[in-house]
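From the pipeline queue, job 12 of 40. The input is one protein chain; the requested action is below.

Action: predict structure.
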Amino acid sequence: MESVQAIKQRFGIIGNTPSLNRAIEKSIQVAPTDISVLVTGESGVGKESIPKIIHQLSHRKHNKYIAVNCGAIPEGTIDSELFGHEKGAFTGATQTRNGYFEVADGGTIFLDEVGELPLTTQVRLLRVLENGEFIKVGSSKVQKTNVRIVAATNVNMFEAIEKEKFREDLYYRLSTVDIHLPPLRERREDIHLLFRKFASDFALKYKMPTVKLTDNAVQVLTKHRWGGNVRQLRNIAEQLSVLEQDRTISADTLHGYLPTSGTNLPAVVKTSKSESDFSSEREILYKVLFDMKSDLNDLKKLTMELMKGGNIKDVEKDQEHLIQKIYGEDDNESEVYEEPVQETEVLSIPEHTATPEEAVSVQDKYHFAEEIQEEETLSLHDKELELIKKSLERHNGKRKLAAAELGISERTLYRKIKQFDL
């Protein structure tokens, strides 16, 4: 069994991070077997190196190795590419074609970006993994194949399974052994080594002197987030090698090639959004006012019933659901509110006859207040209509969910819909 260092030299892998060494060790250990492997990691970390190591160290190394980018093949033709098709199977199929699984029989297939496979193709792939059988497009003949599958993806597979974009049974078939490659930001000590290797390679390719970094530039290089990982670092090294006349790169010069969007500062990111979440504080305020208006209307109704009936016990019995809605479900609260009503004494206040000047002053004063109240009521009416529309849109017209979100009964919501002609 070859050592990790020998594998690095053989396949041109730069770095000495423990997580990288562990990934290579797992590749060496799993290579002699035929179990399937899933390589995970962000885009640009070099996932394509792992299946090459596995194939070259296995007993299949003298057979074919085929790498397939599943994300680059259109959904309508991917079944034909992987499993082949018969002549006349679809428009344009002028002759029989062998798929990758038939061509690579006895070898290894690397399925890059396997998370992009359509669900129908995932079912076919699951059958290949279970018993090595597949059927060409347009054929009814079952064929056998003996291939080893190594898959790779930068997609969070558990999220894809939860969203029903990837089959859970296929995931566990592919990930018999899971090899994770760390992002470049977790390999700080390897960043400068990789840059020097890339700079040396491009110097030979373009027949130019090798670019070198100052100490400050090295610090800038290692502190950068590198969202594109090794691929992005390679592109930066190539740009500096070709465009810069001065072969000593300062920190200011390097800053001009690095994107400013990335940052290492911590940030709180809200990943989930509740169904009743509003986009602004203004909408939250209007919802509170809308709830208060609804409670006020209920109080008016209850007061009117008391004025008409006069019997508190009968009103309490008939309007029990309304009282619970306003004051809560605790029976003790209703008792607290009963006592003041029974024991309240009405005091007689001498009637005061206002002078004509006072009457005019009071009329002008409250005339202004009435105008403000009328304008505010119209504004609340519009916002009430807007909130009902948004709630119905969020719940795809489901009145029960919309009523629960607005804090009103379904019957009241139905009456509002009829009132506003929604």
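Job complete. Residues 356-394 form the longest helix (39 residues).
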